[in-house]
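Q: Structure for this?
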Amino acid sequence: MKVLEARGVTKSFGGLKAVDGVSFGVDYGELVGLIGPNGSGKTTLINILSGHLAADAGEILVDGKPMRGLTPLRASRGGIQRMFQLTRVFRRMPALDNLVTAGCALGMALDAAQARARELIEELQLARVATLDAGHLSGGQQKLLEFGCCFMAQPKIALLDEPFAAVHPTMKEIMAGFIRRRHAAGQTFLIVSHDMPVIVELAARTICMNAGEVLADGETRKVLVNPQVIEAYLGGEAA
Amino acid sequence: MRSALQQRLRSELRTSLVLLVLVAAVPILVRNDYWLGVLIVSMYFALLAGGWNLLAGYTGQFSLAPATFAMLGAYGTGLLAYHWHVSPWLTIPAGILVAMVVGMVLAGIVMRLRGPYLALTTLSFAEIMRIVIGNSYGFTRGDLGLSIPTLMNDRLAWYYVFLAAVVAMQFGLYALLRSRVGLYLMAIRDDEIGAASRGVNTVFWKTASFTLSSALSGLAGVLYAYFSSLVSPELGLLLQTGLVICMVFIGGIASLAGPVIGAFLVYLTSESLRAVGGVQLIVFALLVILIARFFRDGLWGLARRILERPAR
C-alpha cells in the first residue's frame, strides 16, 4: 500500500516550471532515493509533499486519500516528517528541548517526550551537547538534531532533503546507521541526496528528476547507469 | 529530571523573586508617598513589560500596542465605574476581559502577518484606538479623562497590591514557559516554518500569546485606573509603549527577570532625570542602541554571562 503518492504534480515560478507533471508513489517500508542535478525540482517537490508549497496542478495522496490544502502542520500531524536542506532548528533552545518540542507537538506528554528525547540524543551521539542551545552546535550537529526531530514519534514517512550534505563522515555514518536500523524495522523514507555512494547503499529504488520531470524511476543500480541520467548529471552524451 | 531550559527559567524566576523581595522591603525604609508612587508605577510598567516580553521575547511577535491594551483595560473598568457605578468586583474582571477579547480579535487578524507588517498593523491599531477614545467625548470625556472612585486611599496598600500582581505574573509566566506551551512559543520565535513542520499550530499559539499578553496589559491598566482614580487616553500614548520596549531590552528580552529589572531601572532613572527636562528618552534610546549592539541579552544576560564565566 502506498503511504504517499504524487499524481501529475506541477508547480511554476513565473515562467519556470520547477515541477512538471510529476507522478510517483512510495510504498510502506520502502526507502526511495530522489536524485537529480541542481535545479531539477527535488526540493520544490519535497516542499509540495510536506505542505510548504501548494501545487498548481495535480494531487497528493496520503494512504490513498487526496490531501487538499495540505499545510506543514497537517502534513506533520498526518505523519509526514520533513528535514530541510538548510537546517531549521530552534536556535535559542537547548538541543534536548528541540526534540522535546517535536514530541509534544505530535501529542506526546511532556515526561514521555523528555524520556524519548534522551534516548534519541544518546542514539545520535549528541548527549555531550544536549544542554547547549541548538544555535551553538556545529552545522553537522544541527543536521543530526533536526534529523532526530523527525523521529520523536514514528512518522509514516520521513522526507529527508540532503541530510548528508556538508556533514562530517562520522556524523554521516551515525545518520546512515540510524536510517538502516529504522528501515530494517519497517520505516519508510524518501531521501534527496547528491551522495551517490550512500544512495546506492541505502536505497533499493531511486527516482531521478531533471528540469522538473521524472527522468527515471526504478532499481537504483539501473537508474544510475541510465544514459539519460548520466547525461543529466554530466551534461553531455553518455559514453 | 529538569531540562536545561527549565533550570534556566528557574534561575530567572529566583532572581526576579529576590528583586521583588527587596522591593517588598523598601517601604520599611521609604515612607515617602512620592517615591512609593514611583515604585507603584514601576510595577505597573513591570506588568506591561512582562506581558510584552511574553509576546516579543518568547514568541517573537513585535507588537507596538502594549500600552493600548492597558488603556483598553482601564477604559473597560473606568466606563463601567463612571457611567453605571458598577462594583469593582465586576469592573476589574470586565476591564481585563475587554483587553483580552480585543487582543484576541486583533490577533486573529494580524497573526498571519510577519515581521514589519505585524508591528505596523499594531501601531496603526494603537493610534486608532487612542484617537477614537480621545474624540468620543460624550462617552469617554475625551482628553479630560474619567474620574473614578479609588478603592483604597492607603498608598502602601496599593504598593503591595501591585507587588502581588507582579509576583503572580512571574509565577504564572514561569509555569507557562516551563510547560509544553512555552516550548511551542519559543519554537515559533526561533523558526516559525520549522515549528509548523514539527507539528506546532503556530497561528493558534501566536494568537494565544497575543491574547495573554493583552490580558496582562489589561490587568496593569485596570489596577492603574483604580490607583490613580483617573482613566485618560494618555495611558495609550506611543511614548508609553516606547518605554515598555526600552525596559524589556535594557533589562533583558526573553528572560523572566529582565523585564522586571528593566521596569524598575528605567522608571526610577526616568524619575531621577525629571529635574533635567526631557532627556530621559534620549538616555534610554542611547542605552537601547548600546545594548542592541553590544549586549543583546540586556543587563540580565550580561550578569548571567559574568556569573557563568568559568573561573581561571
